[in-house]
Amino acid sequence: xxxxxxxxxxxxxxxxxxxxxxxxxxxxxxxxxxxxxxxxxxxxxxxxxxxxxxxxxxxxxxxxxxxxxxxxxxxxxxxxxxxxxxxxxxxxxxxxxxxxxxxxxxxxxxxxxxxxxxxxxxxxxxxxxxxxxxxxxxxxxxxxxxxxxxxxxxxxxxxxxxxxxxxxxxxxxxxxxxxxxxxx
Length: 184
What we know:
Number of strands: 2
Organism: Selenomonas ruminantium subsp. ruminantium
Protein name: Glutamyl-tRNA reductase
Shape: rod-shaped
Keywords: Coiled coil, Plasmid
GO molecular function: glutamyl-tRNA reductase activity; NADP binding
Structural class: mainly alpha
Largest sheet: 2 strands, parallel
Pfam families: GlutR_dimer, Shikimate_DH
Strand order of the largest sheet: 1-2
Helix content: 55-70%
């Protein structure tokens, strides 16, 4: 396709653009055709450049995606490192809550003259005391998560607060069996 042929065609198109793709080897469209106003010409070389640009853009996007995935994996790993402590924290919280409830109930029989509002205050105060007492051990457990001291703190908390995986209601036989198993 020659430039003069394209000019004739463009005069008949009344300003409408013309888009040509020449993938022939050798080329069928004269490169000067691309210089004509309203004509866009792509040849095999130009298409290869477009493909190369798109491939490079995809590589950059893939790198960005890899970075996002790595950040998310790190975030998930950070969350998972605390999972080993969750059951222990739950046991400790449950045990302290049961003790708190038992002591408030015991106090209620000794203080029958307290009003309902005063009992709400006693309940609230006892919850705050338990929460404040547990705050430091819980923070220490969290800070030890994922470190070489993690198991030490788990074992220490279990021993200090007499927590076992079966729970506070473990029978003496269950505790004895666990002790015997641990000695083996």
